[in-house]
Specification:
By secondary structure, the protein is an all-alpha fold. The protein has one domain (13-428). The chain has 18 helices and 2 strands. Strands 1-2 form a two-stranded antiparallel sheet. Strand 1 and strand 2 (49-53) form a beta hairpin.
């Protein structure tokens, strides 16, 4: 790599790198497309509704999941953005509490209307007496991406403290986080599951299963990924030569692959995503190195007008797209079921060929939905808080419902809990818009 390529990019103020904005948008679009491939809905020969996770049944899926699961990269990019944002906030004299409250508002404000929608919709299904098993199947599916709200909020809330540790201890912080994550996995897989025989959640739905013993890794694994983003911001990856980056990718992948049979991880990387496991942390290093290798072509892409337009169109609505795409997928599939036309059988040739057009339809529908919801993506001037405990309490309130929903599945009580707790979190931290306030200052799709 040339010396110019080894210099950390500092396009735009405070380390803003447009290639990372492009990656953020691409990651969200990839998540939307993956969920479309999971949503196989058709009709059985007897006319009953067929619901399956089509792509997961493919023989190549496990291998593809090692490439397509980009959530570690999302947290790496989030770490880069947090480092840039915290540096900018410090120069403006912003406190750590103010920094965290802005991050909370960027996540909680777009989430509030979604929780309200889920509460109303699931409450209505109860009143109308719709088949509970069908409702559960759909609700658990559309609620599955909500884990990100809790994980990303916790990582961003701790970012100023973790950046201080990064500045003082560097790679030792990564070693400690990875060691803690491995210890959690050993307890979960080798002790709880293999010794005590505890597996999936108990039949009563609110029981205790081995997954719950992995919850501490929501902190350890995703903080590790965010910490890798700090190294990306500092230019550590950019100082490596191409062969060193390739070697780092090969080593990280080899270690992750080697741990799967030893610890008992799933070969399906999506199964390692909740609760997150050590392979997710290792893939953060692999993906950060790959991103560095691709930095030059990605930079060229950001200069293409069509790409710039997509970045602006989707990037300014990023949280709305992420939060609402699965409900919109279900709505569009429901409309298909009501129309007097035959549905392509999930997994058949016609079904596969129509997935990209369906992706474009979903994105267009979510964009239309985002027109009235766009104001929730913008952060108004925050009302000063009277207590130092307001910010940590607000963060705790906000993350409790997404964690519960991811562990047990979305239902009416948890949707209502999400709406109430999110509203309380925003009220405590001054995240609601005030009448006559100055224009909003930023959006969820922008770092800083």
């Amino acid at each position: 790599m040339s010396s110019a390529a080894q210099t950390p990019t500092r396009t735009l103020p405070e380390g803003r790198d447009l290639t990372l904005d492009l990656v953020r948008v691409a990651c969200v679009v990839l998540v939307v497309f993956a969920h479309i491939l999971f949503s196989g809905v058709g009709r059985n020969p007897d006319g009953s509704i067929l619901i399956e996770r089509t792509v997961e049944a493919q023989t190549w899926f496990d291998v593809a999941s090692w490439i397509a699961d980009i959530m570690p990269l999302f947290f790496v990019v989030g770490g880069f953005a947090a480092a840039a944002g915290w540096r900018s906030a410090q120069k403006r004299g912003q406190s750590e509490s103010e920094f965290v409250r802005v991050r909370l508002a960027r996540l909680a404000r777009p989430a509030l209307p979604l929780f309200v929608f889920f509460s109303v919709a699931l409450g209505a299904t109860r009143m109308l007496g719709i088949d509970p098993s069908l409702v559960d199947t759909v609700a658990i599916g559309v609620g599955s991406p909500l884990w990100f709200l809790a994980a990303y909020m916790l990582a961003q809330a701790l970012a100023p403290r973790m950046m201080a540790l990064h500045a003082r201890y560097g790679r030792r912080v990564l070693a400690v986080l990875l060691g803690c994550a491995l210890a959690v996995d050993l307890v979960r897989f080798l002790l709880v599951r293999d010794v005590f025989g505890v597996h999936s959640l108990a039949p009563d739905r609110y029981g205790v299963g081995e997954e719950l013993f992995g919850i501490p890794n929501v902190l350890f694994v995703w903080l590790f990924c965010q910490q890798v983003g700090f190294f990306l911001f500092d230019g550590w990856f950019r100082r490596l030569r191409a062969w060193q980056l390739l070697a780092l990718m090969a080593a990280g992948t080899a270690v992750a692959v080697g741990l799967v049979p030893v610890i008992g991880y799933s070969w399906n990387m999506l199964a390692n995503q909740w609760p997150p496991t050590v392979p997710m942390a290792l893939m953060a290093i692999v993906q950060a190195a790959g991103l560095t290798l691709l930095h030059r072509p990605l930079t060229a892409l950001t200069r293409v007008r069509a790409v710039q337009a997509a970045m602006l169109l989707i990037g300014s609505r990023l949280m709305t797209v992420y939060l609402w795409h699965l409900p919109m997928v279900m709505v569009l599939i429901g409309i298909e079921l009501l129309l007097p036309v035959p549905l392509p059988h999930p997994g058949g040739p016609v079904w596969w060929w129509t997935r990209v057009p369906f992706l474009l339809l979903v994105l267009a529908a979510v964009w239309l939905l985002s027109l009235p919801l766009a104001r929730f993506e913008k952060v108004p001037p925050l009302t000063p808080v009277r207590s130092g405990a307001a910010t940590p309490l607000g963060v705790a309130l906000f993350v409790v419902a997404p964690l519960a929903i991811t562990a047990y599945g979305l239902d009416f009580p948890l949707a209502l809990l999400g709406a109430v707790c999110t509203a309380l979190a925003l009220w405590l931290t001054g995240g609601f818009a005030r009448r006559g306030a100055a224009p909003a200052v930023g959006s969820a799709g922008r770092p800083g």
